[in-house]
């Protein structure tokens, strides 16, 4: 413990991609960081594990050198109704990873860079005049000048120190990931290691069937919609009809579980306050429409690390001294306000469906817009 009774210069709550990236970035610049996570790693995280090359760039990670499951995807299939539309690229435009492996790897990398880790569940948090203090489930306390909240949608700083608009909407999900064996998976699908996305009939979300090496990941996500309990059996029925699920395979799948998280939409999120910065799902940064959250977690963590370093240099940690952080998020992801002209308010829902369907059926528009701008968020992928 330091002279002022601090346990670290920065406390990071949560060791997912956001927390471990912030810790890695700070530790390799010589900052004393302590990561606190209630889970023992490797731990399961509900996630399809679809990542883009931009995430690997932000992590400075070479996919060839990554020592765990990483399936390069250079094609994707989009189902609209009963028709599959395949889009092919000349290079891998995304990858499939297993979150238990990926998150453990990133956390170990942060530790190798000098970050410390403690297996602690944080119960209460307090931003006081002298320090940010957290209390654990066992009653221990940790203090630091600054904290980074990276605990996902259940982050204790997000829950206890930030305000939420009543109209805040979450993505509601159900997912199962199982090590089935590559050969067995190949017997069930003509699209091995080609992500299959199934647009929901009302276009309020999508389901997926992802094959990644030995792993099969099946899931569904809908925006702010508890009717997922009806949509999920309908999707499983479709997979059975397509032969993707046989009774033997289904019997071996891990149980479907749910996890809600907030997307970055017109309902503003609070991402900082006195003595704290929030990254990733704790700040509600996942992308609208696709629900991609790993990339925003990593990018925001790098921004938070830069702002934390400059706050430590200046010795100032009030919300107004950390303003640079929300500004960086706005520059990256745009302002969080309702658009001046929202065509969805004027175009009848049945027409909107037909427009989306038309876009998905067009090879060019599917490549440029649906995959290029929504799922991959990589304008370069649109032309490759
Ligand atoms: C079903 C599903 C599928 C998804 N698929 C994709 C996808 O394919 N691609 C993609 O980019 N995104 C996907 N996402 C979103 C993505 O998983 C998240 O956006 C991402 O994990 C956010 O990372 P994070 O570091 O902010 O938080 P998390 O990964 O949630 O990590 C938070 C960590 O904090 C710890 N923690 C929480 N509370 C406490 C506490 N009180 N004390 C101590 N530790 C605590 C947790 O144990 C956890 O380790 C998906 C999400 C779901 C639910």
TrEMBL record:
Pfam families: FAD_binding_3 (PF01494). It comes from the Bacteria. InterPro entries: FAD-bd (IPR002938), FAD/NAD-bd_sf (IPR036188), Geranylgeranyl_reductase (IPR050407). One of its GO terms (molecular function) is FAD binding. Residues 8-304 form the FAD-binding domain. Belongs to the CbrA family. This is Protein CbrA. It comes from Thiohalorhabdus denitrificans. The lineage of its organism: Bacteria, Pseudomonadati, Pseudomonadota, Gammaproteobacteria, Thiohalorhabdales.
């Amino acid at each position: 413990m330091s002279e002022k009774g601090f346990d670290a210069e920065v406390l990071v709550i949560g060791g997912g991609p956001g927390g471990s990236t912030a810790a890695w970035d700070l530790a390799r610049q010589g900052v004393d960081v302590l990561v606190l996570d209630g889970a023992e790693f490797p731990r399961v995280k509900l996630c399809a594990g679809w990542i883009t090359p931009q995430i690997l760039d932000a992590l400075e990670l070479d996919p060839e050198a990554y020592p765990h499951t990483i399936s390069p995807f250079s094609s994707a299939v989009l189902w609209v109704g009963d028709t599959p539309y395949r889009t092919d690229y000349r290079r891998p435009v995304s990858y499939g990873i297993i979150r238990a492996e990926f998150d453990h790897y990133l956390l170990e990398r942060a530790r190798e860079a000098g970050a410390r880790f403690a297996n602690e569940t944080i119960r209460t948090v307090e931003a006081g005049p002298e320090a940010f203090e957290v209390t654990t489930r066992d009653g221990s306390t940790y203090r630091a000048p600054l904290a980074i909240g990276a605990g996902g949608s259940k982050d204790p700083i997000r829950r206890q120190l930030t305000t939420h608009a009543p109209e805040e909407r979450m993505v509601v999900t159900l997912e199962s990931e199982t090590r089935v064996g590559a050969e067995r998976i190949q017997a069930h699908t003509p699209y091995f290691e080609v992500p299959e996305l199934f647009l929901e009939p009302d276009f309020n979300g999508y389901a997926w069937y992802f094959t990644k090496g030995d792993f099969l990941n099946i899931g569904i996500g809908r925006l702010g919609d508890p009717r997922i309990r009806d949509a999920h059996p309908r999707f499983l029925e479709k997979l059975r009809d397509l032969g993707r699920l046989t009774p033997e395979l289904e019997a071996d799948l891990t149980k479907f579980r749910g996890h809600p998280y907030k997307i970055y939409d017109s309902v503003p999120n609070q991402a900082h306050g006195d003595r704290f910065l929030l990254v990733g799902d704790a700040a509600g940064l996942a992308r609208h429409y696709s629900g991609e959250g790993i990339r925003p977690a990593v990018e925001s963590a790098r921004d938070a690390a830069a702002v934390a370093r400059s706050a430590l240099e200046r010795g100032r940690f009030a919300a107004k001294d950390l303003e640079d952080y929300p500004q960086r998020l706005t520059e990256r992801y745009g302002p969080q306000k309702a658009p001046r002209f929202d065509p969805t308010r004027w175009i009848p829902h049945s027409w909107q469906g037909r427009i989306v369907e038309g876009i998905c059926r067009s090879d060019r528009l599917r490549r440029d817009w649906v995959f290029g701008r929504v799922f991959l968020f990589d304008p370069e992928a649109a032309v490759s």
